[in-house]
């Protein structure tokens, strides 16, 4: 494998609240190659979004990255001064937010906003900026892009707005895009269109993507690699196909089993019993233990990462193989 | 329906649907024109003391005075033609109302947005000051300031601004605070765009609708506040009567049957303020999407 464009190691982002320390991200590691799309899945509150924000250094107090490293094309981001980090944001690494209504300024035309986003990083003539904006709008599938530059956000539908947001994220051809559930607010057919376009764009431009979602079905059609988060940790990661066919961590298995497509029509959907634990009072050892069907005394210890054929999981009693991790 | 070519044209098309608001707008425009061209439409210059004759004082409407023309609305205790005095009074009232309105709009908006943008201590300091001030009646504050600064146009405007900027600060703060948390502001701030640019291009334009509404209402308020101060004798000198002072001048004669000296300036003042408020209400309704049909 070539050098990863983004390499995250043991990233820990904690929030120091009055009620105690919330370990929202607790030891996350992964590598991302050029043009690769990684899906980051998990329930609400599992730390997906905080992971995304941490990558861009956008964690606000009382949150703080307490440990770990984020290297973007060799540059360490966690220790970078704010001014240098700002120069990278939008240029080398950009983010797409969940809500396409709040991400655009309602008082400026799309063209004006794209020009501002370009101005943030480079000096371009008005004409060149218009040309670049038009090109990108066309690329994300907006018809008659040149005319649409003069339109205001409210004149676009939700799906179109999200495309505009994606076009803005792509303006500077960043090496990495972090997309935080960008299609959640859209209906399914639009979602599918955008997913396909994103995959093509990643292929054409070499932009790597981290696609954050709670929807395993959506991500698995897009990403070549999956990371499943639970209570601030990645409990399992590996190539999408392998992970779906042969999950090792009981949580991943539970997620897959609860997909509607996995259930016989007419029978109730399978679900994982219980709810996500409060990050303030995590049980010692494996955080999934209280909800897991295979819990034993060993689960009171924290399971280490088991790696095998380019995938990894954190469980003493993995599914699929009957092999227990030797004590 | 409307062809929605520009936001302004769309706004006007909707405004036109409310006939009362259109009439009110016409009244406001008419009064502003009368104020601007007071010297052309008035039969007399009420500030030129040489023109006034005490022989003509307190005459009823329709009286033909020593100037040789009919005083349509009668004369005041100084022998001024009331109609002319009202036109000139309108000019002063509107001038002061607009000046005070715009200065407090500017200062209040700047403070409110600064507080919302900066947060922390500046926010606490500015907004607590504003809260403190809003807990006092505006008239009380204005009275104290006029008493301290003395009489005169500039002092009066200063007092009105000091009493009213707080409303703008509160409104701008609220709007900016809500806008500040939105993703597009956060995103713009995360890039090397200068803070000034983010505030001017992103934050300020999105705070304008509520500010326009407050501005129309506050202009009406500063006109009536000025009238109140003048009525209490704390406004402008007697030689340059505003509407409030005209009302005050006639007040002692109300009970002796010479109603016109107070009543006509009062009517002019009421019409102006009501008209501005109706326009303001319509503008507010149009900016409030929840009231949209």
From TrEMBL, chain A:
Family annotation (PROSITE patterns): ABC_TRANSPORTER_1, ABC_TRANSPORTER_2
InterPro entries to which the protein is assigned, alphabetical: AAA+_ATPase, ABC_Ni/Peptide_Import, ABC_transporter-like_ATP-bd, ABC_transporter-like_CS, Oligopep_ABC_C, P-loop_NTPase
Residue segments, region Disordered: 304-327
Chain segments annotated as coiled-coil in the UniProt record: none
Protein localization: Cell inner membrane
GO molecular function: ATP binding; ATP hydrolysis activity
Membrane disposition: Peripheral membrane protein
Span of domain ABC transporter: 6-256
Domain of life: Bacteria
SUPFAM superfamilies tied to this protein: P-loop containing nucleoside triphosphate hydrolases
Chief localization: membrane
One GO cellular component term noted in the UniProt record for this chain: plasma membrane
Entry annotated with the keyword rRNA-binding: no
Pfam families given in the database record: ABC_tran, oligo_HPY
Keyword entries, A-Z: ATP-binding, Cell membrane, Membrane, Nucleotide-binding, Transport
CDD domains: ABC_NikE_OppD_transporters
Family, as annotated: Belongs to the ABC transporter superfamily.
Name listed for the protein in its UniProt record: ABC transporter ATP-binding protein
Species of the source: Sulfitobacter sabulilitoris
From TrEMBL, chain B:
Mode of membrane association: Multi-pass membrane protein
Subcellular location: Cell membrane
InterPro entries: BP-dependent_transpt_permease (IPR050366), MetI-like (IPR000515), MetI-like_sf (IPR035906), OppC_N (IPR025966)
Name of the protein in question: ABC transporter permease
Residues that span the membrane, as ranges: 20-41, 92-117, 129-150, 259-280
Keywords on record: Cell membrane, Membrane, Transmembrane, Transmembrane helix, Transport
Domain of life where this protein originates: Bacteria
CDD domains, alphabetized: TM_PBP2 (cd06261)
Coarse class of the protein's main subcellular location: membrane
Family: Belongs to the binding-protein-dependent transport system permease family.
Gene Ontology CC, one term: plasma membrane
One of the GO BP terms on file: transmembrane transport
Family annotation (Pfam families): BPD_transp_1, OppC_N
Domain annotation ABC transmembrane type-1: ranges: 90-280
